[in-house]
Structure formats: structure tokens, C-alpha cells
Design goal:
alpha/beta; Isopropylmalate Dehydrogenase; 3 domains; two-stranded antiparallel sheet; binds 1,4-dihydronicotinamide adenine dinucleotide
Length: 358
Amino acid sequence: MSHEVVLIPGDGIGPEVAGATRSVLDATGVDIRWVERSAGAAALETHGALLPESTLEAIRRCRTAIKGPIATPVGQGFRSVNVALRQDLDLFAAVRPVRSLPGVPTRHHDIDLVVIRENTEDLYRGIEFERGTPDAAALRGKLHDLGGFQIPEDAGITLKPISVSGARRIVRFAFEYVRANRRRKVTVGHKANVMRYSDGIFLETARTDASDYPDVAWEDVHIDTLSARLVRSPQGFDVLLLPNLYGDILSDLCAGLVGGLGLIPGANIGWEYAVFEPVHGSAPDIAGMGIANPIAMVLSGSMMLRHLGELKAADTVDRAVDQVLGRRQIRTADLGGRASTVEMGEALANEVTRSEVA
Ligand code: NAI
């Protein structure tokens, strides 16, 4: 069966890791017809927009995409492309599997957890009022009238909406994920004791809807306590279910536990579309040097293969990553080695080809 997939190379190290990923996925023999589209700085130059309509249109048509990281220019009035993609395509669930990999020196071992993050609400909803603007002044006035809240004149304001409907779909997604993937337990992270009307809704919805899944164990933990427990004994966790902001922060923390951002894949899933991407950003400090680790995007590719029903090929890619890392011969700089992005890509693609032949 042939699959049409949109490939967005992205910014910074994006094109480097995307090239390696494409060669590894092609080596599986799965018939992927790549539809390359741009977003980010490259698109701003060629299309005059960070997220061109032609890119969105291609994803709507193919329904599946894989992307490299995209840098959003800071402080120039641009809406984050990543946030825009997630909102415009309603990719409400971010799924980030974090597992200990062979041959990667880390403090902890035997970590095997999945971060499931709500992707469209919360402080990342993008509802912001700039300090000193008439809108910020009007909002401060309204808040004063409504609840006597005194907000300093020199404050910027970001709002944190969390809805029952938004919480419900991610809660059910997480519990369904546990069932479908034979996992054990959901841990809900929140701060409902302080943010009663936003995190409170997240927790309440989890509590209500968990009763529909009597076969799935669950617990709730305050986000600060959860952070401390994660760095002490991450093996105690299975599936973490988190609102948007906490999910963003803790998935990077979890990446650090298993060897860094260069290793952690991700998927953004909605009812209609799925966009796969590494958790890391465009890494401007090493962009263009050819030393980025492509594994995070390669593993995002294996998640994509699984999503497309190509289970055997996905397993082959995962195994190739384990085998190449386990041999400790080819390692990129972030893992203490000297291999280039291209060399790592070639080693993985060769490993995939070898196991396809075997
Ligand atoms: P970053 O993830 O780009 O970099 C953090 C550190 O990790 C850097 O030292 C970098 O060299 C290293 N690193 C990241 N990926 C690596 C890889 N594959 N191999 C080796 N080392 C790697 O985070 P930062 O610096 O906060 O963000 C840079 C830009 O990326 C920003 O414009 C940000 O908005 C964007 N970004 C985009 C994301 C996306 O497209 N999904 C996600 C996160 C950030």
C-alpha cells in the first residue's frame, strides 16, 4: 500500500535531521510518496508567510505529515507556527514516548513512560495582552470591576482557559491509549489546589471520565511533586497526562532523563490529522554544522509508520536505533561521539536494510 505524506523540513537543524529521517524511512521499503512543503523561516522567504495555506492544504489532503522543528521569530508579532498548526488542524493530543535507550549513558535506567499532553488550551492558547496597550488597560479595568483584582499597569497578561470539552477529549484519549497499548497506569499532573477553575476542571474531568475505564489504574499528583518524583524515580511512572504547559516542560525534563532532546520523538494527533515531529527545537547553536542527532525525528518517523498501519516497518526502525546505539560506535556529539548527522542516518538506514533482507 502506498502512503502520501507531507514532509516539512523546518528550520535550523530541521533540514539536516529530516534528510536523514527520509533515508531511514525509505530504507524500510514502505511505499511513501513524499509531498514536501515549507513552514517557518524558509516559508517566510518564499511564500511571505510562516505557515503558508499551501502547506495546510497539503496536510488536510494527505492527513499525515512529519515535520522538523520550526523557529518562530520572537517579539515580532508572529504567532508560533507550531501553536498555529496544532490549533488550525485541531491536533489536540501530543504523544511523547520516553524510554531508556541502549548505549546512552544516563543517571537512570529502565525508564519507559509516555507523556500525553493537551495541545490546544491552557496558557499556550495564545490569548495575550501586551503591557501598556489599550486592550491590556481595558482588561485590567474589567478585572478590577469584576473581582477587585489589582493588576499593575506595567503587567502583560496571558490567559489560561481549560474547558470541560477540551479536558474530556484528552482524558479519554489517554485512557484509550493505555488500553490500546497495553500500558498500566495514568498519572494526572495538575495544580488544582491553586488554579481551581482551570486545572480544577482538568482534574475533575479526569476523575469523572476515569470511571468509564475501571480496568485502567490512575492517580493524580500535584505538578511540583510530580517533577520531584520524576527526577528521583522515573521508573514509577507509565503514562503522564498533562495540561499543555506542564506537558511541554515535563516532556523536556523526561527527555533529559534518557539522554537528551536529540532522542525523543513526538506525535500531534487529532480526530482527522496527525503531524509527527521531534520534541526538540531548531537548535540554532548547532544548525548548519551537520552534527545534530537525527534519532528524535527518525523515531517520530517510526511512530508515523505505526499510525499508518506499517507495524513491522516501525518495529524495524526502532530496533535499528537500539542496535546502532547499543554498538556505541556511531554516536553524535550530544551523546559524546563524533558522528555527523549524515553518518548516523546512513548507519540507521543500513541497519534497516540489513534487517529487511534478513
Ligand atoms: P532546542 O531544542 O532547539 O535546543 C536546546 C538544546 O538542545 C540546544 O543546545 C541544542 O543544540 C540541543 N539539541 C536540540 N535538538 C538536538 C538534536 N537533534 N541533536 C543534538 N542537539 C540538539 O530549544 P531552544 O533553543 O529553546 O529553541 C530553538 C528554537 O526552536 C526556538 O525558535 C523555538 O521556538 C523553536 N522550537 C520549535 C519546536 C518545534 O518546532 N516543535 C519545539 C521547541 C522549540
